[in-house]
Amino acid sequence: MVLVTGAAGQIAYSRLYSNGNGQDQPIILGFGITPIMGVLMELQDCALPLLKDVITTDKEETAFKDLDVAILVGFMPRRDGMEWKDLLKANMKIFKCQGAALDKYAKKSVKAMVVGNPANTNCLTTSKLAPSIPKENFSCLTLLDHNPAEAQTALKLGVTSGDVKNVIIWGYHSSTKYPDVNHARVKLQGKEVGHDAAVIKAQKLSSATSAAKAICDHGDTSGLEPQRESLCPWALSLMATPMKVVEGLPINDFSREKMDLTAKEPAEEKETAFEFLASA
């Protein structure tokens, strides 16, 4: 059973087709909260090979019951004139409820992915409210920043994204995030190279990509951001089963400065968010 919240929004709409496509595991797709009969009809018309059933509901006990996967796309977007703290407070209410619902109704093996920004803080909140579910089962959408960093590195070097690996994003979805290519490996003319001057030139990267594509990639890697009471991404080895944090990664002075800077913002956000939770 797969739950998608905020399924009437553009991100979820772009993602839903991939949920029902493939050749292996039939799924039952549940839509939480929003009325989306048009989307439901379109999914049925697609004759997706894996899609066994679609359930639409605004009841938590139905939406979250016996879940295998929860894709939490629904969140409060920032509106004109809205203060940052007001946005954070609104999202704390949403993800507090969703975390509690996961804890009460979902399987204890459920894998939950938080998409709505601030994704790191929302993910930590969700996991806090679901103490019976292992922390490593919660992740958030850091690939929304990682994919464009990888793509821009490839663009600078005239290769495809598939030829680039080991790009790291430190921080989270904000202006202070740091795309680190110091450990990147790139295949040039059939040969893999690293620490090339051309790679280092790609440090200044833009941030624009499809959130739906990032969600698909995130699912393929089974979640990229384990919660360790931290709001910043970890450098992970995806070749390990289960995934593990990369230990002993050499960090130069420039990178350390950028990492320290980007760590301050989510730490402050976490403190404010938990104040809202305590008073709710």
Task: Give structural notes.
With 280 residues, the chain is α/β, with parallel strands linked by helices. The protein has two domains: 2-140, Rossmann fold (3-Layer(aba) Sandwich); 143-265, L-2-Hydroxyisocaproate Dehydrogenase, Chain A, domain 2, CATH 3.90.110. The protein has helices at 10-19, 37-45, 60-63, 84-105, 119-128, 143-157, 197-200, 211-220, 253-279; strands spanning 2-5, 27-32, 51-57, 69-72, 111-114, 138-140, 164-165, 168-170, 178-180, 185-188, 191-194, 236-237, 244-245. It has a six-stranded parallel beta sheet with strand order 3-2-1-4-5-6. Helix 4 runs parallel beside helix 5 (119-128) and helix 5 packs across helix 9 (253-279).
Relative strand content: 15-25%
CATH topology of the largest domain: Rossmann fold
Distance between the termini: 30 Å
Specify the CATH class of the largest domain. Alpha Beta
Provide the low-confidence segments as ranges: 195-212, 219-231
Nearest-angstrom radius of gyration?
19 Å
**Side-by-side strand order of the widest sheet:** 3-2-1-4-5-6
Classify the secondary structure makeup into a structural class.
alpha/beta
What would the principal axes of the Cα set say about the shape?
A: globular
Percent of residues in helices: 25-40%
Total domains, how many?
2
Order of helix and strand elements from N to C terminus? EHEHEHEHEHEHEEEEEHHEEH
CATH superfamily of the largest domain: NAD(P)-binding Rossmann-like Domain
Whole-number average pLDDT?
75
The tally of helices reads 9
In CATH terms, what is the architecture of the largest domain? Answer: 3-Layer(aba) Sandwich
Number of strands: 13
Biggest beta sheet attributes: 6 strands, parallel
Protein name: Malate dehydrogenase, cytoplasmic
Family: Belongs to the LDH/MDH superfamily. MDH type 2 family.
Organism: Muntiacus muntjak
InterPro entries: Lactate/malate_DH_C, Lactate/malate_DH_N, Lactate_DH/Glyco_Ohase_4_C, Malate_DH_type2, NAD(P)-bd_dom_sf
